[in-house]
Every structure is written in C-alpha cells, then in structure tokens.
Amino acid sequence: QVQLEESGGGLVQAGDSLRLSCTASTSPSNMAWFRQAPGKEREFVARVGWSGDITDYSDSVKGRFTISRDSAKTTVYLQMNSLKPEDTALYFCAAKFGLAATTEEAYRYWGQGTQVTVSS
C-alpha cells in the first residue's frame, strides 16, 4: 500500500501562483497529478518518473505548471503559475509502480485531494 497526502491548495486570484505538495509513504516509480472540476470528469494534469527528468503535461497546463519530485523520491510538487479560473478544481495526487502512464485507470494509489480555487 502507498499512502498519499496532498497539501498546498487554496484560494488565489487569476495570474497568481500556487505550489501543491504530495508526500508518499514510499517511493513509487511514477507520481502524477490529476484534477476534477465541478460537474466534470477527472483529468490528467502532469506526471513525473523516478528520476524526475521525464515529465508529461496536459496541453491545458503546459508552460504554466511544473511537476518535480524531491531527492528522496517520496514527495512530488506541482508548481502552478499564471493560474486561470478554469484551473479551479480538486487536485489529486496519484502514484503507481511500473510503466509510465497518463490515464486515471493506470494509477492504483490516490490521495484525498486538495482544493484549488482561482477567482477572476
């Protein structure tokens, strides 16, 4: 079992920055962020591999968000810049072992989520 705990969400204004953190109870090979806006399905945001060098982003956040992980490989960060009202969502941390993936179904372990609200 891998336990995940997110932190760092909050209420900000459009154009502001926010950094989310997710700490895992172990060191999964892949860690990712997903988000779910009200009335919408959960969607992939970003993922990072073991080394931290290999990352993927959704088109909607590319160039604005940066995912990284610490040297202990147990914490993943999501630096969110130039936030927009459409970024408002519940952000989930997810983890998996094995091959890299960007689909919700591929991730076995999930956090409870942290709310990000961006006002216009």
Task: Provide the fold topology.
Blueprint: E1 4-7, E2 10-13, E3 18-24, E4 30-36, E5 43-48, E6 55-57, E7 65-69, E8 75-80, E9 89-96, E10 109-110, E11 114-119
Parallel strand pairs: 2-11
Antiparallel strand pairs: 1-3, 3-8, 4-5, 4-9, 5-6, 7-8, 9-10, 9-11
Which key terms come to mind for this protein?
4-stranded antiparallel β-sheet; 7-stranded mixed β-sheet; 120 residues; mainly beta; 11 strands
Q: How would you describe this protein?
A:
The strands form two sheets. Strands 2, 4, 5, 6, 9, 10 and 11 form a seven-stranded mixed beta sheet that branches. The N and C termini lie far apart (40 Å). The chain is mainly beta and 120 residues long. The model has no long low-confidence stretch (mean pLDDT 96). The chain has strands at 4-7, 10-13, 18-24, 30-36, 43-48, 55-57, 65-69, 75-80, 89-96, 109-110, 114-119. A hairpin with a 5-residue loop joins strand 7 (65-69) and strand 8 (75-80). It has no helices and eleven strands. The radius of gyration is 13 Å and the shape is globular.
